[in-house]
Structure formats: C-alpha cells, structure tokens
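Changelog-adjacent note: as of this version, every example in the card shows the full chain rather than a window. The one below runs 448 residues end to end.
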Amino acid sequence: MVVDEGRPRLDIEGFPAEGGLFASVLEATKLYVETKEGWRFVVPGAADDDPACLEPVWDATSKYLRDREDRTVSLAEVYDLWRAPPFGIKDGIMSVIAVAYVLSNRNAVAFYRQGMFQARFKDLDVDYLAKDPNDIQLRWMNLSEVSRRLLSGMAEIVRDLDTANVLANLEPIDVGRGLIAIFDDLQPWTKRTMRLSSNAVHIRGIFKKANDPNRLLFNDLPALVGNDHDLSTDAGLVAVVGNVREGLAEMVAAYPAMLHRFADNMLAELQVPNTSAQALADLRDRAENIRELTGDFRLNAFVGRIAAFLGTTEDIEGLSSLAANKPPNDWIDADLDRAAVEITELAQRFNKSEAYARVKGRPDKRHAMAVVVGIAGRPTPVLEEFDITDADRANVNEIIERVETALEGGDQAQRNVILAALAEISAHYMNVKPTAPKRSSSKGRAAS
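Full-length structure tokens:
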C-alpha cells in the first residue's frame, strides 16, 4: 500500500493471499480507485460510491482528531474508537484500514513515529504500526490560522531546492513535509560538519529537532530572525523566507561543493588540465599504463579507481573514501582533512610511478627533465627538475615551432647567442611563481 501506491492492484499479480485481501478490503470498498492523478487511496464516498459504508468511520476519526488538534493521538486510541459501537471493526484488518486512512488524508493529517514528525509515510512505519499502534501518532492540522503568504514563500523554497516536489496542495502539512524532506535527504556529513555559516548551523539545529510542521513553519523558523519581524509585513516575510532559503540552499550545496574541491585538488596534482572528456580519458590511459606496477596495494587501489574515473559523484566519493579510510556516511571534518593530505601523496606517487613505467616494458606516459642555468652575477646556478605527460606533448611541440620560427630570421651560425637567449628565458620562467592551478603545460609544472 505504501510502496506501490499508484499502480493498478498495488502491483499484485494473480491471486496470492495479499491479492485476496486487496480485492476484499480495498478494491471492493472503493478505498483504492483510479483518479485523474492515477491510482490513489481516497476517502470513502469520494466518488459517491461507498459500498462498505466506511464514510462514517472516516468522518468519526477525523472529528476525533480535530477535537484533539492541540496534541498527537496515538493509533491505539483510534483503534479503540473503531472497536467500539457502532463500528465494531475487527483487530485483524485494523492496520490495513489505518494505512488507508492515513494515505487518503495525507493533506490534512500529520504523521508521527514515536513522537517524531515524519515527512513521508514509509514501509518502515508500517512495521512499527503492525507491531505496536502506540508507536504511531496522528494529528489534525488546524488550517484556520495558516498564513498563506508565509506558506507561499516556504513553498517556493521547496520547489526550488527539490524539483521533484511540485507541492500541488499548498497546505501547512505539505510545505512542512517538503522542507523536512529536503533536510532528511542531506548527506550525513552535512548534518555533522561545522564548515557552514552560523545561519545554516542554526537552521540545521532546528530541523534536527523538528517534530511538528505547524510549529516548525510558524514558530521555530521565524524565531531565527528575532521577534522584531512582523510576518504580516513584506519586510518581515522577506526576512524569514530569505533566512530559511539561504540556510537550506547552503546545506544542499555543501556536500557537492566539498567533493568538487577534493576532485579539483587531486586533478591538479595529477596535472590534468580540465575535466573535459578527453582530459579524463588521457588520465585513465595513464592509470592503465601503470596498473599493478609498484606492488604497493594502496597505490594500486588508487590507480585502479583512477583507471575507471569519469568524474561522477560516485567516483569522487570512492576516491575520498579510499583516502579517508571511511565510507561517506561516517565522514567528519577531520576525516576530510586527512583525506586531502593522503590524496595529494597518492597523486604524487602516481606521477613518480609513471616515470618508471619502462621498467616493465610499458611506454612512458611521463617524461622527466631537468634544466641547469648558470648566469653571470648569480652565485649559484638555477636548477629546476620537472616532468611532462604525453598530453602536454602537443603544447610543447607548438612552442618549439614558434621559437624556431622566431629564430629562423637570425644568424644560425651564432649558436652560442641562441643558447644564451634560451638560457635566459629558461631562468626567467624557473623563477615565475604559479598563479593558478592550471596544469596544462610543462611550464606550469616547472614553476611549481
């Protein structure tokens, strides 16, 4: 009922035991019907057809919740109502009727598990419901005091940050569920890190403790900007909505941004000029060339991941987990600091291994070079050691052609003059400091 709502016969094929239960309790009673939005659980009598006379049960249950809207009502209380006259519903089908009631009233009834508000009704909740109805609570949402302007602003936040949620019904429970669902979907690291702004940290704290959509929307979140803001004014509304939007947007972007920084630093160490398909293909070729070369298990694991690296989030997470020695769900800030150092070391060992590929008869993908220049007036020669990859070769050849073109107009017999000019130019670039992490040529590597 929870997982397969929206599919004909709840995706039950044939007539197993659950097929017979579906036909007698849900299909024959018209609790599960095809609507304009697809197959849905509906309130009895919604289509002027209530063959099992269940509409009074739904009405009495909703009235019971409305009369106690100041608190949550356990499902055990609701079961007592259903057992009593005039209904006399048997315990055996209580859980099925309860799930149908919750799903058909999802826009008006808030759902709680062990006192904590839940954004979505899941199959896990059915397990709790079947085991002990006291673990599940319901609460009717009072719509009479809803600030539509605030709801509209909060709804826009949900639609912008969760494109899959269109919020067709602008009700407090739906908006509250949407906001909490965005928070629930954050990566575990985002819920622990302190590398967020103070506003985002405060909003995160509120969402961690949220257990009531009305209180979250109209008390907890507005309180973040103080009591000086009146929600009935445009300035007060903009302040509250903007505060929540900025905090949630920062949390949503924090994990991807952290992974991208990690990948950028690693690719810079590996002398990958950019993240184009060709650049990553060249990197994979380099990794294949030194696979199982060194006998170092940790380096081999790194090389193996680089050999399959496509730049996806999963690829970056895999490399980060290798460096941190922890799965992503367990990361804390200190793990990422260690991972950054470790990935730099692995990348440098990767580069060094390429220079020795010939030991096992493999083609060199990296070429080590050194330049020593002694110039009058300097106490010691200038020394620079560096290396270039096959991907840099095209840039090197282009520069050679340009230099040769420039020299063709001179006197080719003045060999010493030409070499002196090249030495002076080399000394100049050996002293130039790198200005950006672009590693597209040997010059950038030499300067580092």
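Structural remarks: The longest strand covers residues 366-373.
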